[in-house]
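queue> pop job 88
queue> type: inverse folding (structure -> sequence)
queue> payload:
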C-alpha cells in the first residue's frame, strides 16, 4: 500500500502484506461502512493472517462505534451461515451488536463444542459489558444462561466471573446455580459472591477513585461513607443492592475491569459508562498531581490523601504529600516534610520551591518565602502552570536584592 493510499483499495491487492497492512490501518481509521468488506475478507481470504487482521479490524470498528439497527442487522446477516471454527477471532465482532439479537448469538456460541469458539464468545460478552452502550438486558441474559444449566463448566466460570466483576448483585442466585456446572465454575462462584457481598458494604467503597482515560478527569473520594468530588462535599454514600448514590452523581456501580495500560483486572466505580479506577499507594502521587490546586477547595480530601501517603517513599511521592499537606492547611507538617526534601536534595525541583515559598509565606517566614520563589522562577519552565502564581507571590513579597544561584 503506497503512502497516503486508500487502505480499502489495498484490500483488493494480490500482495498478502499489503492486504494485512490495509486491515491493520482500518482497525484504527475504519468506519461502520467498512464492516461489510472486512467481514467478507475475514471469512473468505486465502491468507490466514489477512483473515485474522480483517476480523480484528471489524471487531475494533464494531465496538468503537455505536452501530445503528441497520448496521447491526447487516453484521448478523453477513455471519448467518459462517462457521465460527474457521476464524474464532471474528466472534468478537458480536460484542458490538449490543442488542437482543447479538446477545442471543453469543449465548449460542458459548455452548459451541469447540473450546476456542467458547473462549472467544466469553471474551465478546465481557467486552460488550464494558461498552458505554452495553444493553441493560445483558445482566439478566447472563443470569438466564447460568440458571439454565446448559453451559460447559469453562463457559459458566467465565460468565460467573463477569457477573462478579460487573457487580451484578441481582444475579447472585444465578451464580449459585451456575456453580453446579463443574469445579472451575464453583471456584469462580465463591470469588464472585465474595466480591458482590463486599460491594454491598458501604465501607468497602472508601478510597480514591479517578479516571483520565478519555482525556477528561473525573474523581471521587469516599471516607467513612462521606463522598467528595470537584464540587466539594457530596453527602453520605448510600448503597442499596450494590448501587451507590451520592448527591449530584448518577447511580454508581462497582466493577473489576481490565485497564488498557495494565495487566489483569483493577477495581473501579462505574458511573454512566465511565470507569473510575481505585488509586492506592504510589498511584496517589498521580492523583495529587492531576488534581493540583483543586484540592484547596476540598481540604478534607487533601488531608486524607496526605495521611494515606505518609509512609510512601520516593522523591515524587514525598513532594506530592507536601503539596497535599499545604492544600489541607497543615502548614507546620508541610514545612517539616519540605525541610526533609531540601536537606536530601542537591538540586531542588521548581515545583517544590514554589510550594515551599507558599508554605513559608503563610507561616510568616518571608525571607525563606522570597528566596524560594526567586529560586523557583529561576529554574521553572516558562510554561509551568504555577509560574504566574509564583510571579504574583514574589510581587506580593517584594523583590529582594539577593542573587540566588540554582542549578538548571
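queue> result:
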Amino acid at each position: 500500500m503506497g503512502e497516503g493510499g486508500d487502505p480499502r483499495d489495498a484490500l483488493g491487492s494480490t500482495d498478502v502484506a499489503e492486504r494485512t497492512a490495509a486491515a491493520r490501518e482500518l482497525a484504527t481509521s475504519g468506519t461502520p461502512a467498512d464492516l461489510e468488506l472486512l467481514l467478507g475478507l475475514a471469512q473468505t481470504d486465502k491468507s490466514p493472517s489477512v483473515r485474522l487482521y480483517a476480523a480484528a479490524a471489524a471487531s475494533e470498528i464494531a465496538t468503537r462505534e455505536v452501530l445503528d439497527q441497520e448496521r447491526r442487522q447487516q453484521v448478523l446477516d453477513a455471519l448467518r451461515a459462517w462457521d465460527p471454527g474457521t476464524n474464532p477471532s471474528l466472534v468478537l465482532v458480536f460484542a458490538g451488536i449490543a442488542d437482543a439479537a447479538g446477545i442471543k448469538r453469543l449465548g449460542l456460541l458459548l455452548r459451541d463444542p469447540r473450546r476456542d469458539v467458547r473462549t472467544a464468545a466469553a471474551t465478546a460478552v465481557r467486552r460488550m459489558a464494558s461498552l458505554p452502550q452495553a444493553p441493560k438486558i445483558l445482566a439478566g441474559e447472563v443470569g438466564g444462561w447460568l440458571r439454565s444449566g446448559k453451559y460447559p463448566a469453562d463457559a459458566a466460570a467465565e460468565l460467573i466471573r463477569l457477573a462478579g466483576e460487573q457487580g451484578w448483585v441481582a444475579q447472585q442466585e444465578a451464580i449459585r446455580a451456575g456453580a453446579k456446572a463443574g469445579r472451575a465454575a464453583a471456584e469462580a462462584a465463591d470469588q464472585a459472591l465474595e466480591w458482590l457481598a463486599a460491594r454491598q458494604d458501604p465501607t468497602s467503597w472508601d478510597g480514591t477513585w479517578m479516571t483520565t482515560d478519555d482525556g477528561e478527569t473525573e474523581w471521587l473520594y469516599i471516607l467513612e461513607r462521606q463522598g467528595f468530588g470537584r464540587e466539594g462535599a457530596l453527602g453520605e454514600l448510600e448503597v442499596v443492592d450494590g448501587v451507590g448514590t451520592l448527591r449530584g452523581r448518577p447511580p454508581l456501580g462497582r466493577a473489576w475491569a481490565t485497564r488498557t495500560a495494565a495487566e489483569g483486572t483493577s477495581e473501579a466505580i462505574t458511573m454512566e459508562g465511565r470507569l473510575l479506577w481505585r488509586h492506592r499507594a504510589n498511584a496517589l502521587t498521580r492523583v495529587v498531581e492531576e488534581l493540583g490546586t483543586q484540592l484547596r477547595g476540598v481540604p478534607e480530601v487533601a488531608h486524607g490523601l496526605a495521611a494515606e501517603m505518609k509512609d510512601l517513599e520516593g522523591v515524587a511521592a514525598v513532594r506530592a504529600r507536601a503539596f497535599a499537606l499545604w492544600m489541607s492547611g497543615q502548614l507546620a507538617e508541610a514545612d517539616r516534610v519540605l525541610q526533609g526534601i531540601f536537606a536530601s536534595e542537591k538540586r531542588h525541583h521548581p515545583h517544590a520551591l514554589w510550594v515551599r515559598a507558599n508554605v513559608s509565606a503563610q507561616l510568616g517566614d518571608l525571607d525563606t518565602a522570597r528566596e524560594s520563589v526567586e529560586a523557583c522562577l529561576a529554574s521553572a519552565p516558562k510554561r509551568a502552570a504555577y509560574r504566574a502564581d509564583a510571579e504574583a507571590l514574589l510581587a506580593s513579597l517584594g523583590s529582594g536584592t539577593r542573587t540566588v544561584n540554582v542549578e538548571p
